[in-house]
Design brief:
90 residues; mainly alpha; three-stranded mixed sheet; 4 helices; 10% strand; globular
């Protein structure tokens, strides 16, 4: 079953893993992490978010951001700060 994400503009879209990976990877690279490490971290964060999503049908983009940020903090606290800050602005 496809997971739906409710965006700020009140429209919904399906969960798109590549968007989360790109966002987490960009935050890691923004704090000068190595490319390979950023890729691995992004994959691990996505796996954590997807595990959390298993029991959900519809969540907000803020929910995804919060869970991803908590997970990212375990691997790279500096990147987590960037990830949360950048996404709060948008």
């Amino acid at each position: 079953m496809e997971k739906r994400i409710v965006k700020k503009s009140n429209h919904t879209e399906g969960y798109q893993r590549h968007k989360l990976i790109n966002s987490v990877r960009a935050s890691c690279l923004g704090v000068h992490d190595f490319v390979g490490s950023a890729e691995l971290t992004a994959k691990r964060v996505c796996e954590h978010v997807e595990q959390w999503l298993e029991s959900k049908h519809e969540v907000t983009s803020a929910d995804i951001r919060r869970i991803a940020g908590k997970s990212l903090f375990k691997y790279n606290p500096d990147a987590a700060y960037i990830y949360i800050t950048i996404n709060e602005i948008n």
